[in-house]
Amino acid sequence: MMPRVVGVDFGTKRVGVAVCDPLHTFAQPVGTYARDESIDVIAGIAERDGVGTIVVGWPLDSDGNENVMTQRVDTYIDMLAERLGHEGRSVQFVRWDERGSSREAVSELLRAGAPRKQRGRGGARDRVAAALILQEYLDERNAEPGGA
Question: Measured by CB atoms within 10 angstroms of the end CB, which terminus of the chain is less buried, N or C?
Answer without folding.
Answer: N
